Amino acid sequence: MLNVVGRTLAQSVRPFDLVARWGGDEFVCVFEHVDLERLRVLADRCAALVRESRLPSGHSGISASITVGGTCVAEGDTPQSILERADRNLYGAKQGGRGWACVS
């Protein structure tokens, strides 16, 4: 299933964006040249495409969902502050249940 999710994410972004497995069942996507509204659209799109993907098994296959925590880089950010903010947003999205996206 991780391969299905990874392929779905990789195929849903622009050629110069980055999708990588972060660890366990977590992935990181790095989008260049996006504002907050575009990030929200991309996060929702990725979540929707993963929901629609299937791992072949039986009649309907096995489905997956992702929860997205995203953030835009702000002036003065460090790699650590970016990851911490994205992680807080991920936690916030998980509070709403699986399959949600939260960006800031």
Could you walk me through the main structural features you see in this protein, from its secondary elements to its overall organization?
By secondary structure, the chain is an alpha+beta fold. It has a single domain, classed as Reverse transcriptase/Diguanylate cyclase domain (Alpha-Beta Plaits). The chain is built from three helices and six strands; from the N terminus they run H-E-E-H-E-E-E-H-E. It has helices at residues 2-11, 36-52, 79-95; strands at 18-23, 26-30, 54-55, 62-63, 68-70, 101-103. It has a two-stranded antiparallel ribbon with strand order 1-2. A hairpin with a 2-residue loop joins strand 1 (18-23) and strand 2. The longest helix is centred in the middle third of the chain and has 17 residues, at 36-52. The chain is globular, with a radius of gyration of 14 Å.
